[in-house]
Amino acid sequence: MRPWLAVLCGAALPLLATAADALPRVMSTNLCADIVLLSLADAAQVVSVSARSQDPARSSLAALARRHASNDGTAEEVIAARPDVVLASRRWQARHQGALLARHGIRIVTVPFPDDWPGIFDSTRKIGVAIGREAAAEALIAELEGRLAALRPAQPEDAPRAPLRALYLRPNGGTAGAKTHVDAVLRAAGLANHAALGGRVGWGRASLEEVVADPPELLVTSQMVHDTAYARAGFSRHPQLRALADGRPALALAHNDWGCSNWQLIEAAEELADGRRRQAHAGVAQ
């Protein structure tokens, strides 16, 4: 059993009912907040999670999420449920009146959207403290640090190799440069972010011309089944891009979890690293 899961399930130390009763009651209102709550909270303190987290096409924690009540993220639901703490995004907090919820004794905790691993560690600690689950947060961080370290095997000094230049590309041309969690995932997997090396910072859209003129060595795509970019996927169907894709290796992330910037990004990094190892063993071009 993973260390953080042992703490979460109570395998590390027996949890007394009185201790669980002392924890704040928590409600999360979006998928990214749900993942952090489900990963850290004692089950007894979870008031509800967003309905999206119970969809297995959207979250790998759907089975765990379905053990709890669901919500649609409305202020009316929050006030009616009267949690002690609401985990929400900045966008949710902007749409709702924090002062109104505060009058009902409800504290809003904004779940950060970090762009690097230290930020993910800090965000995990912040939420752990906010919901009274510091030990679970530290166990999760320790596991994450170990898994990141396992992705960094030392290369032989006499045969250094530059990391493969990988371009993350969505069907509509969307991509991610430096200072994004995609960049953190690519680098953790032992890849170089082609968009960042080309000077891109943050999120944006690559033009067909720039991709063809400066092609990457590896294409990385994600199967985000609910991504509305698929409705505007003419970019990915263009003959020139298809020809370019046919001439180089590609990796497609099979899960839908890396849209959130939290501990689950390690699974995306591990999937990419494993994919490259399998390609190398199969003799796919380096």
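The above is record 1. Record 2 follows with the same two-line structure.
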Amino acid sequence: MKGPPVPPFGEAAAGRVARVPGSRLRRLFGFVCEAHPPPIYAVVCAGWAYSLLSMLLPPRAGAALGIEGAAVALAFFLILLFLRAVDEVKDLDYDRRHNPMRPLVRGAVSLGEVWGLAAAVAVVVLALSAWLSPRLAVFAALQMAYGIGLLLLERHSATFRRRILLNLCVTLPVSAALNVYAYLFLASRGLAPPLQQAVPVLLAHVAVFLHLEFGRKLKWPHLAAAGENGYALALGVPGASAACMLFGGAACALATWAHLSAGAGAASPLPWFALLPAAVGLQGFIVSRQEAVSLKPYFGGAMVLFFLINIAVARLV
């Protein structure tokens, strides 16, 4: 359970914290580096966007992976940064109890500064999306509005805060929408494949995200703090581990099917190799019952490897 909701918007409403000295830009830069590390998320977002575009594009239509493809990857990065800023506000009360070193909790930035960053990023996202396509700007606006709606829902619904599987079902669309963003970009250029061909690709990328989501939060219940939420607490360690690997297998199976359909031949099953880092991390987790193990590098690495393999296989067609 995450406890009572944080009061409505504003630093005074949430309780003042001692602010770290320094310029506002320096504090915001530090916040971004900590909460949304640019080198890591640049690799993730570039891989995510180019994996989608490579698999969705018709053969020999690589021109769309030029500067506009890079713009789609940048939009992914900025949308995730916006959602990260909103999440920092949304999770403030929970982080005060369980993650006291989060930047907003310890006063590295103020609530007003985080909201200001979110607003500035939103403006850039809308401008970039409008340059790509007016419809993309509308879609991005709806996606970011959904993120704000999640914050309001969590503040007013104890059930939503307490039930992690319900929380996942409601919050998943805001991340899964990135896949639709890439498809709409291609549609605006007349390059989008038919839906029956695109759906396996889109679902594969949703599944690999869920693989990461379940994997990075695996924790033995006896190591969880009082009141801490987690998939292992809701499903048990065997259930959460099985769900994690099930989503990973689904992502690879769907990607294999998509590559086979595109004519990649013997290279089509290569995405299965992306599960190796996750398998190593999961094995370490199982044998280390008495100490906490960070699985995010293993499952994050598996997701990036999945993207890179898809890009490589798609280029063989």
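DSSP finds 14 helices and no strands in the chain.
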